Amino acid sequence: MHRGRRFEICDRISDAIVDTEPQARCGVETLVTTNQVVLAGETRGPASVTKDKLVDVARQAIRDIGYEQDNFHWQKADVLCVIHGQSSDIAQGVDAAGNKDEGAGDQGMMFGYACDETPDLMPAPIYYAHGILRALSEARHAGRTPLLGPDSKSQVTLQYEDGKPVCATKVVVSIQHDDGIDADQVREIVRPYVTGTLPAGWMCDEANFLVNPTGRFVIGGPDGDAGVTGRKIIVDTYGGAAPHGGGAFSGKDPTKVDRSAAYAARYLAKNVVGAGLAARCTIQVAYAIGVAKPLSFYVDTAAGDIDEAKLGRVLQELVDLSPRGIRTHLGLNKPIYTRTSSYGHFGRQPDPDSGFSWERLDLVDELRRAF
Which of 18, 34, 187, 216, by CA, is between 20 and 30 Å from 196? Predict the structure, then answer.
């Protein structure tokens, strides 16, 4: 599946605020509705990051997505900023002091997952759902689909044989459109972006190709449905193919293990699969607020011929899983988060500036040597 753009607006604004000052502490939530944006949460950073600056950041994020509609316009919407300073009680648990290392910014469990179903080692349904929406978005920004709007979502159902995907049985695309075209016209505009994304021969039959099943999607974005940061956490990760710890990513700086430890877990799981040690790998890690080292670390490969206890030890030797260790290893204190708000946080290509650094396969050789 892939979420609607109204939720991506919130995640994008929150992550653009994180990117405003990469060294700052940040836990920011965004709410959007008809011509209204509310920024809330807490930050700790330089005085130069004022409320007026954060309002400008929010407007620019909305503009970049393409909302210039009567009831949600980047320039005309009312943006209310009620962000305040970080709690000193939380700060004293996270900050390093004396012999105390930097602690986790919260408690909880995080999961990472990888499988060999796609080139990016992601579950195939969400991989193709993201691909369809990316193709449609690129076409809209390039001016090739002027009758389509920015709000869109997709869902792909696949048939598996012997544990491998072989074809699509259902494809759903809901996309905002101009009032002057009907459902059949929208369907034909969308069709080539679906068939061009799926592998040859995978397209479902006509009865199961559903485009705007309600028949009409003119009113879209926050005017049609309110959104908040972190609403679609399963879509951010693996589309339901793997467990999720429950914490959203967007709006959080990398001292928040909801984000950084989930990235680290994906990084380790992807390298396990990339090294050929397993066809799929799930990693669970747990933290307590203010404590640097993980409380637990668990690896599940569903492969009977590998010593999972040894694998767990090797992975923890290769990467320091303290919040500071993760941030340093993956280079997370950089303005790299706005780009994560669309098309999921995983299954992306690593960028030279540490963007999507958790998608690197640079542990593969060491893992192969260890096994």
Answer: 216
CA distance 61 to 14: 9
The DSSP call for residue 66 is T
What is the tens place of the pLDDT at every residue in 250-294?
999 998 999 999 999 999 999 999 999 999 999 999 999 888 899
Residue 1 is predicted with a pLDDT of 47
Q: In the β-sheet with 209-211, what is the strand arrangement from edge to edge? A: 148-161, 164-177, 209-211
Task: Judge whether 252 and 27 are in contact, CB under 8 Å.
Answer: yes
Residue at token pair 């767990």: 312
d(CA 1, CA 240): 9
Per-residue pLDDT of 181-225, as tens digits, reads: 999 999 999 999 999 999 999 999 999 999 999 999 999 888 888
Q: Cα separation of 259 and 91, whole Å?
A: 17
Task: Judge whether 281 and 273 are in contact, CB under 8 Å.
Answer: yes
The CA distance from 356 to 350, in Å, is 5
For residue 119 the two structure tokens come to 């080139």
Whole-Å CA distances, 276 to 24, 124, 161, 364, 367: 38, 18, 21, 9, 9
Q: 45 with 21: CB under 8 angstroms?
A: yes
Looking at the chain, list the stretches that DSSP marks H as alpha helix, in order from N- to C-terminal side: 5-20, 51-65, 88-94, 124-141, 183-195, 233-236, 257-274, 308-318, 323-330, 364-370
Question: Which residue matches tokens 């984000």?
Answer: 259
Mean pLDDT of 298-302: 95
Q: Alpha-carbon distance 58 to 15, whole Å?
A: 10
What pLDDT, in 10s, does the model give residues 4-20?
454 589 999 999 999 99
Pairing relation of β-strands 148-161 and 164-177?
antiparallel
pLDDT digits (tens, 9 = 90+) for 55-79: 999 999 999 988 898 899 999 999 9
Contact partners, residue 326, CB within 8 Å, separation at least 6: 254, 257, 260, 261, 263, 264, 319, 320, 332
> How far apart, in Å, are the Cα atoms of 246 and each of 10, 40, 107, 164?
18, 20, 11, 28
Write the CB contacts of 91 (distance below 8 Å, at least 6 apart in sequence).
25, 44
